[in-house]
Each structure stands twice: as structure tokens, then as C-alpha cells.
Task: structure prediction
Amino acid sequence: MHDSPQRSEFVRLWMVHGQRIYAYLLTLMSNHADADEIYQDVGMTLWEKFDQFTPGSNFQAWARQVALNKVRSFRRLRHHQTVLCSPEFLDAVEQTIAEDTELLDKQYKVWSDCFDRLPSRQKDLIDRRYRLGETPKNLSERTGRSLDAIYQALSRIHRALFDCVREATFGESTS
Result:
């Protein structure tokens, strides 16, 4: 991939879909470190093979297929480690995601809008807990809040997100 327009298009598509590909990998892997490693490998493979991508086709589906192949390869290479799901399960997950991509994209958009409405302190707590994988105990120590306060805060944020998504999706309010 040498020409700048093609490079720019790859970057644009990866910025739009990369986070979803990472989330997809997290559904297939047993830990964040493995998902991180595969995510980087997927990005490099997509970059190297972008000239094989058909413009206007479904980049996300193509990237998911590359990701699934990378997961399978990763598991074959690490066959001595405990595997939490079978190849058949991986196929079933891919099929479900492929069939429900439009619905999942809408749900992600609703959740993302709700997340964006949270106060920055709450967004930071959720980000540190789930994206960065910090434990509640670690969050407690880092913030100086009790462990119980961290659990309560996470519970309140979960409830606020749930209520927001339900209201945006179904027009139902819990108030």
C-alpha cells in the first residue's frame, strides 16, 4: 500500500471499526493481554493486505474474519494452554455477530451516547475498570475510596447506563 489516498482510507476505516474489532476479540479471548496481542497483529495484517480489500465492501466483516483467523492461529500455537471454548463455539459467535451486526451497531451507538453523558469522574472509573482492567481493590487504593464505595459507584453507574439505554431504545423511563 503505497499511495496516500489508500493509506488514508485504511486509517479512516480502522478508526471507525477498530474499537469494535477489539471488543470482538475480547469476546473470544480469556484475557486482555492476549486480546491486545492479537489486536495489534490484526491491525498489521489488515494494513499489509489492505490492497486486497474491495472498496465499498464491509470492512468490519473483513476485519472480523481476519481477527477470527488470528484467534484460531493463536489457539493452535498455544494448544498446551487451557482453552475456554471450542472452534465450533468461535464459529457460532462469528455467525451470530455477522447476522446481528446492524443491531449490534445500533446498540453500541446508544450505549456510547449514554456513556458520553456520564460525568467525567464516572467515565474515568468505568474506563479504568473495564478498558484498562483495573480491579476494584486497585481502584480503591488509587482513589483513596473504600472498596465498598467503589462497588457502590460502579453499581450506580451500571444502573444509570442501563436506564439510559432502555429509555433510548424502548422509550421506557424508570423514574
Observations:
- The CA atoms of residues 114 and 161 lie 6 Å apart.
